[in-house]
Amino acid sequence: MKRFVYINDGDLSPGVYCNNKISNTKYTLLNFLPKNLWEQFSRFMNKYFLLIACLQLWPLITPVNPASTWGPLILIFAVSATKEAWDDYGRYQLDKQANERNIWVVKKGVKTRVQAQDVQVGDILWLRDKDEVPCDLVLLGTSEPGGVCFVETAAIDGETDLKTRVAPPPCIGLTSDLLHKIKGVIECPTPDKDIRRFDANMRLFPPFIDNDFCSLTINNTLLQSCFLRNTEWACGVAVYTGNETKLGLSKGLPEPKLTAVDHMIDKLTGAIFLFQIIVVIILGVAGNAWRLSESQKIWYAKYSLKSSSWYEFLVIPLRFELLCSIMIPISIKVSLDLVKSVYSKFIDWDLQMYDEKTDTPAVATNTGISEDLGQVEYILTDKTGTLTENIMAFKRCCINRICYGETTGDALADPTLLRAVHEHVPEVIKFLKVMAVCNTVVPVKSHGILLYKAQSQDEEALVQAAAFLHMRLINRTASGVDVDFLGSMLQFEILDVLEFTSDRKRMSVIVRELRSRKIKMLTKGADETILPIVHPEQQCRPVIDAVERYSQMGLRTMCVAWRDLEEEEYSRWSVKFKEASSSVTDREWKVAEVCQLIETNLELLGATAIEDKLQEGVPETIQTLRKAGINFWMLTGDKQSTAIQIARSCNFVLPEPEGQLLHVQGRTQQEVQMSLERVLRTLRMSSTEPKDIAFVIDGLALEIALKHNKEDFEELAMLSKTAICCRVTPTQKAQLVELVKRCDYRTLAIGDGGNDVRMIQAAHVGVGISGREGLQAARAADFSLGKFRFLKRLILVHGRYSYNRTAFLSQYSVYKSLLICFIQIFFSFVSGVSGTSLFNSFSLMAYNVVYTSIPVMTTVTDKDLREETVLQNPQILYFCQAGRLINPSTFAGWFGRSLYHAAVVFLVTIHVYANEKCELEEMSMVAFSGCIWLQAFVVPLEMNMFTSIQVIGIFGNLVMFYIVNFAVSMVKWGGMHTIMYRICSQPAYWFAVLLIVVIGMGPVFALKYFRFVYRPNAINVLQHFERMAELASSGTAATESPLRSLEKGSIPLSVSSPNAELGSVYEPLLCDTPSSSLKRGGVTYSTDFIPSSPSTFTLSPYSRFKKN
Q1: Kind of pairing, strands 722-726 and 692-698?
Q2: Nearest residue to 889 (alpha-carbon basis) of 1019, 1067, 1106, 1080
Q3: Greatest mean pLDDT range, 103-112, 497-506, 886-895, 907-916
Q4: Does the annotation count 348 as an active-site position?
Q5: Is pLDDT above 90 for 350?
Q6: Measured between alpha carbons, how far is 448 from 450 in angstroms, rounded to an integer?
Q7: Among its keywords, does the record have Transmembrane helix (predicted)?
Q8: 485 among the known binding-site residues?
Q9: What is the spatial distance between Cα 344 and Cα 1050, in angstroms, rounded to a whole number?
Q10: How confident is the model at residue 644 (pLDDT cuts 50, 70, 90)?
Q11: Chain segment 154-201, per-residue pLDDT in tens
C-alpha cells in the first residue's frame, strides 16, 4: 500500500488522512468503567471471585453476609481502577500539552500560527532552532546553503549525538520565498514503526523541476519528537501525523512477562482449585446424606422432605463452595503487585548501583519481574559498550604491507608513519583519504574548535586519527566533503553513498575528486566482506596476517579498500542504483543487489585496529556470577579472534588446563554438522571432568546450524556453560535467546545499543546499559544500569532478596486462607454438614484485608543474610535457581501447617468450651483470636531480622485486633454486641489462646530448631557464622555453637547432600523430595563445601536438572 502526499495543496486530499491530534490515552470518560471492568474480568481469578460474590446474593445458600466477599472484591477492583485512571490521566495531560503547542504552518503561501493538533498531511511546517518536531516531515529546506540541518533523536532512539538530515537534491538552494510556494507530490509507504527506514519518492511540479522522481530516505526526514539543533530554521512537509507517525506506531505496552514464581503460583492455585472442588463434592454428598437420614431424628433439624424443591440437593454443595472459596486468597495478586513495586523502588534507590561518572542510576522499568533476577541461569551479553567502555582509540594499522605501531604500541606515535605522511607516500595518502571521507561523521565548530559528531564510535576514532595525521575533515554537506591535508584543500563531490547494513557489513562512498575530476570508490568494512571483493591478483596475505594478529590482541579490526571507476562504467551502474533507490518496496534488498555490481575488484589498502577497553570490574563480576552457577554467552558482531581475546580477559574462557575452547565452524551444511558432532562428542566425554569447556561459532556457521542442525545445537547449548558467537546479526541474537529459553532456562540478556533491543525483549529479563550508543536498549529493557559491574549486585542482592520474599509472601497468603477454610470444614462435622459458617462476615473480611495483610507486608525488608555475605558467597544463589523456596514440596509444607493449625484451633476451642455456656459467636471469636495469635508467631518465626517497623507491624496489628473488635462489640447491630467484653473476662478464653499458641507453634519451632542445629543447609551455616561474628564483635562469648554437627564434623554440609537439603529459609514441614530441586540435563556444578570462615564457603556438587 502507498500513500500520496500533495505538498502545500490540501484540497487534493481533504480529510483522507488523520489530523495531528495525539492520543496515547487508554480510556475515555465514556468507556473507562466498562472497558476497565472488562479487562479486570478477563482474568480467570476475577471471574471466579465474581461468580462467588454473585452466588452469595442468593439468601438460601449463602452462609455469610455477601459483604465478606463483595467488600474485598470491590476494594481490589477500585484500587486497580484508580491506578489505571491515574496513569491514564497523566498521559492525557502530556497529550494535551503536545496538542496545544503552537506551530508555524504555511497556508496558501502565508505563514500562520496554529495548534499542533490542527496540522494536516501535506502542510508545510516551519521550525526554529530548539523546536520539537510535531509530526513526521520530509525536509524541504534549511537555513544552511547545502540543505543540511542537525537533529537530536534521543526521544525516539535514545542516541544523544546530533544527527544530520539533508533536504532532497531538487530542494537544495531554494529560498524561503520559493519554499512558501513549492508544489509537488510524495509517494511513500503506509505508516510503519521502523524509525530507521523511509523508502519514498518525490516529484516537484513545474516551475521548480521537470517531472522527474527523486528518491527519499530516512536521512531526508524529521521524525516526531526530534529537536532541531544548531540550525536557524528548517521547513518540511507533513507526511505522517497524529498516532500514525513512526513514534506513535512504536508506542504501546510490551508483552507482559511472567516470572517463574508466577508460573508456579498459577500451577499451585490450579491444584488448590481442584482440591476445593473435590472437598465441595464430598461435603455436599455428605451433607445431603445427613439431611436425608440423621436430620429426621432431630426435631429441631428436621427437613420437610415432601415440600423440598428440585434444587434442594444443590443448596448444601453450593454453601460449601462459598465457604471453601477463600482457599484461593482474593488478595494475593494485589499483595504481590504491591510488594513487587516496593522491590523495584529498592533497585531505584540503591546508591551502590549509581554511576557517578555518567550520573546514571539503576532503574527498574518493569516492576513485576524482580524475583526472576534471582533465578537467572544464563546471561547472554553483547560485547561492545556492554563489557567494554565503547571509547575507541586508534592503535595499529597496516598500510601497503607495513605495520605501524608495533614498537611504540600506538600507530599515531610511530615516527615511520608520520614520516610517510609528510613524504606523501601514495598508499598512505589513499588510506587516510578513506578514513576521512568514507563515513557519516559531521564536523561542527564550537567556540572555534572543530568537533566531530558521529553515530559510530569506530568512525569517530578513524576520523580523529586521520585528523591527527593531518588529513582533517573540515566540512561535510549532502553533496560534498572538504578535507584539509597539510594546508592543501581536497574537495570531493559525493556521487553516491552505499550505506552500511548489518547484512553487508561494509560501507562505500563514490566520490569525484574536483581537482582531477576522477571518480573513486572508497570502501571500509569487516575483513570477511572486504577480502572476497578484492582484485584476485592482489596479494592479501600480509593484511590478513595483520588482521589476525590485531584480533588476537583484542583490537577491533577493519579493512580499507579503494577503486578507480571509469566514467562510462559508473554511468551505467548509476542508472541501476537510482532505479533501486527509487523503489518503494524491498528497497534495501534491491539496493544491496546493485551495490554488489560495483563493489568488485577493489584495491586493498590495508587494515585498521581500534582498541576498546574493558569496563572496570567486568572480569570480577563475571567470575562471581559464574560461581553462582550462571552460564555466559557472548553475542557480538566482532571478528572471532577479537571476541576470543576479550572473552579470555573477561574470565569467559579459562586457560588450559582448567578450560578448553572448541570451535564450531564450516561454510556448508555438511561441514557445520561434522563440526557440531565433533564438539558434542568432546563435551559428552568430558561431562564428568571438572573442566570448563566453551565453544565459539561465527555468524555463517550459526545460521546453518539454526536452520539445518537445530537439535544438535540445542544439545550443545545445554551441555556447554560458555559460548562465544561472533559476527551475529540482531536477529540471530534474538534467535539464540529463544533457543536457550526453549531449553527451559531462565535467561537474562544485556546490551547497550539499538541492535540489542530484540535480544533484550526476547529474554525473560532484559537489562540495558545506558552507554555511549544511547538509551534505546535501556528504554526497551526491564532494568537499566550505568555499568556492567552493577549486574552482580542486581542479581545476587536484589534478585535473591526479591525471590525469597515473594516465595514466602505467596505461600503465606495461601496458608492463612487455608487455615480459616479448614476450621470451617471441621466445624461442619459438628453442625450437621450443613455448610454453616463458624465466623461472622465482619471477621472474615477483616481477616483477609487487615489482620493478616499488615504483618506479612513488613517482610518486604527482611534479609536472611547480610548483603556482604551474599556477595562473598554467590553459590547460595543455587537455592533460588533451583526453585527451592517455592515448589510443590514447600507448598505441601505450608498446606500441612495450615491443616495442623486449623485442627489445633478447632479442637482446643471445642474442648476448652465444652462445659461452658456460651453462644456460637463467642466460640467463633475464641477460634478467630487463636488464628490471629498464631499469625503473630508464624510471621516472626519465618523472618530473619527485626526492625522497629516489623515489630510495630506484627505486634501492633495484634493490639489493633483487640481495639477494633472491642469497638465493634459496642455496636448493637452486626451480631458482635458485647462479645469481646464477655470472652476477655473469661479465664477460659486466655487459656484457650495460650494452648493454641503452645500446641500450634511448639512442633513447628522444634522442627525448625532441629533442622537449624542438626541438619542445617548452607544458608543456615552462613546465618550461624554471621551470628558468631556479631557475638565476637560485641565481646559476648558463646558457650556452645548451635551448629554442633558442623563443629564436630559429623556430617559433610553440602547442598547436594540429602541431609543438607532438608530445608530452605521458608520450608516448613518439608521433607526432601526430588521435586524440590530443578534438574539440568547432565550438568553438575562442582565445588567443595568448606566452611573455613564466617564470610566464605564453597559448595560441593550440586545437580540442577532440567527437562530435555
Answers
A1: parallel
A2: 1067
A3: 886-895
A4: no
A5: yes
A6: 7
A7: yes
A8: no
A9: 43
A10: confident
A11: 777 656 667 888 888 888 878 888 888 888 899 888 888 888 788 888
Contacts of 718 (CB under 8 A, 6+ apart): 743, 1080, 1081, 1082, 1083, 1106, 1108
Q: Is 499 helix (H, G, I), strand (E, B) or coil?
A: coil
Which of the four pLDDT bands, split at 50, 70 and 90, describes residue 403? very high
Give the start-end residues of each E strand in 212-330. Answer: 214-216, 221-222, 227-229, 233-240
- Using left for φ > 0, alpha for ψ between -120 and 50, and beta otherwise, residue 231 falls in beta
931: CB partners within 8 A, 6+ apart? 816, 819, 820, 823, 847, 901, 905
Q: Would you state the pLDDT for residue 428?
A: 94
In this predicted structure, what is the pLDDT of residue 422?
Answer: 93
pLDDT for 308 equals: 56
* One-letter identity of residue 1000: G
Tell me the three state secondary structure of residue 851: helix
* 126 beta partners: 104, 235
CB 1018 within 8 A of CB 1053: yes
Distances (CA, A) of 943 to 452, 507, 862: 57, 61, 6
Residues 716-772 have pLDDT tens digits of 888 888 899 988 888 888 999 999 998 889 999 998 877 788 899 889 999 998 866
Q: Is 727 annotated as a binding residue?
A: yes
Burial of 450 (0-12, 13-18, 19+ CB in 10 A): middle
Q: With a cut of 70, say whether residue 1046 has pLDDT above it.
A: no
pLDDT, residue 254, reads: 61
Residues in CB range of 381: below 8 A, 6 or more apart = 387, 632, 633, 634, 635, 749, 750, 751, 788
Task: Write out the three cell numbers for 90.
Answer: 497523566
Mean pLDDT of all residues in the chain?
83
| CA distances, 459 to each of 391, 608, 903 (Å) | 11, 11, 74
Is 636 annotated to bind a ligand? Reply is yes
d(CA 509, CA 521) in angstroms, rounded, equals 6
| Whether the predicted pLDDT of 1051 surpasses 60 | no
CA gap 749, 759 in Å, rounded: 6
To the question of whether residue 11 is assigned a binding role by annotation, the answer is no
Does the annotation flag 756 for ligand binding?
yes
Residues in the chain: 1108
The span from the CA of 407 to the CA of 402, in Å, is 13
Query: Is residue 383 marked as binding?
Result: yes
How far are the Cα atoms of 384, 457, 789, 929 from residue 612, in angstroms, in the given order?
A: 8, 10, 17, 66
Q: Is the pLDDT of residue 297 over 60?
A: yes
Q: How confident is the model at residue 77 (pLDDT cuts 50, 70, 90)?
A: confident
Q: What is the CB-side half-sphere exposure of residue 173 using CA atoms within 13 A?
A: 5
382, 496, 698, 712: the active-site residue: 382
d(CA 1003, CA 900): 10
Task: Determine contact, residues 492/437, Cβ cutoff 8 Å.
Answer: yes
Q: Say if residue 500 carries a ligand binding annotation.
A: yes
Do the Cβ atoms of 165 and 148 come closer than 8 Å?
yes
How does DSSP classify residue 29?
T
SS3 assignment, position 876: helix
List phi, psi (to 5°) of 1091. -75, 75
The three-point CA angle 321-325-326 to 5° equals: 145
Residue 1000: phi and psi, rounded to 5, are -70, -45
Three cell numbers, residue 587 = 528497497
Note the pLDDT of residue 982. 87
The residues with which 564 forms a beta bridge, in sequence order, are: 520
Identify each DSSP E strand in 242-324 by its residue range.
none
Predicted TM-score (pTM) of the model is: 0.79
Contacts of residue 39, Cβ cutoff 8 Å, sequence gap at least 6: none
Q: Is 638 labeled as ligand-binding?
A: yes
Q: CA 339, 345, 349: angle at the middle one, nearest 5? A: 145
